[in-house]
Amino acid sequence: AQQIDLAVVAGDGIGTEVVEQGLLALEAALTGTGRTLRTTDFDLGARRWHATGETLTDDDLAAIRTHDAILLGAIGDPSVPSGVLERGLLLKLRFALDHYVNLRPAKLFPGVSSPLADPGEIDFVVVREGTEGPYVGNGGAIRVGTPHEVANEVSVNTAFGVERVVRDAFARAAARPRQKLTLVHKHNVLVHAGHLWRRTVEAVNAEFPQVTVDYLHVDAATIFLVTDPSRFDVIVTDNLFGDILTDLAGAVVGGIGLAASANINPDRTAPSMFEPVHGSAPDIAGQGKADPTATVLSVALLLDHLGLPDAAAKVEAAVAADVLERSGRVRTTAEVGKDLAARIAG
Ligand code: IPM
Ligand code: MN
């Protein structure tokens, strides 16, 4: 299609601020591509929940489905009980739209300071499974509030679900220069799920013999993410391990203000969703302090997904140039957005 139909879920807190800048970057990147942008705003998040009690209705979901992609800012507010918007909105979108690849690149751009003394070259991607694991809500509690309370959260791992994400991770590894895939799990303790993941990686490796495979228990992986992050190329892991590792990865490559993510439906049976890894940061909301760079980098992932790799590269190059020169300068959200859009426009 010549027109990109984008569903915009700005959400809560700094979400609206960073999304505004992300859209400017997107407009700039589309110039000269022959594609035009049409956006539809979806009023979802804390405000809507307070006003109506709704998080994501069937009608919302049906309307979102008709779009080519979704740009999401951030969801969550201290005035809403924990879990309501996370489960009822964000995870519901990921699950309903079958975003089984949660792609989270970790790249240390020149000029960005890492908390590591000697970070070396860091450029890896985490392929986090997005529709299974302990996130599915398979669990329950009994005798709640008593000394004999039992609370279960079952991690669901299906052969179908593991295989499709592992195959996607192999394909990504095969397309990168180092062609290396690291499976992260904890099969010495989580034997059932762990062995399913291991056997699946072994089996799919036969389709991608050029990819070198290794394995790390998740606890050891956290050590290497700090002591030797250069060893990683593509990491594939389950939903919860991936959640934790990607916050650590974000910190290691210069902070969550730069961490982008894509919730991808590789089969394209529903729109994919692009969002910064950071949250709604209610403490700084409305002050123009949020860094929109993570959202702009998420826009690059969006462009790539829509078959516009040149436009995506322009966005990434603009960020690379911007972060190289930012040391010491304090800019507002809008100023960073304007600078990035100007660089993208060339
Ligand atoms: C993330 C977030 C979400 C997750 C929460 C808000 C449900 O931490 O996108 O990483 O756990 O996936
Ligand atoms: Mn997270």
From TrEMBL:
Subcellular location(s) of the protein: Cytoplasm
Keyword NAD: yes
GO cellular component: cytoplasm
Cofactor note: Binds 1 Mg(2+) or Mn(2+) ion per subunit.
Pathway(s) annotated for this protein in UniProt: Amino-acid biosynthesis; L-leucine biosynthesis; L-leucine from 3-methyl-2-oxobutanoate: step 3/4
Binding positions for substrate per the UniProt entry: 94, 104, 128, 219
Sites annotated Important for catalysis: 135, 186
Organism listed in the record: Cellulomonas denverensis
Source taxon at top rank: Bacteria
This protein's encoding gene: leuB
Protein name per its UniProtKB record: 3-isopropylmalate dehydrogenase
Primary site of residence: cytoplasm
GO biological process, one term: L-leucine biosynthetic process
Classification via SUPFAM superfamilies: Isocitrate/Isopropylmalate dehydrogenase-like (SSF53659)
Cofactor(s) needed for function: Mg(2+); Mn(2+)
Record keywords, A-Z: Amino-acid biosynthesis, Branched-chain amino acid biosynthesis, Cytoplasm, Leucine biosynthesis, Magnesium, Manganese, Metal-binding, NAD, Oxidoreductase
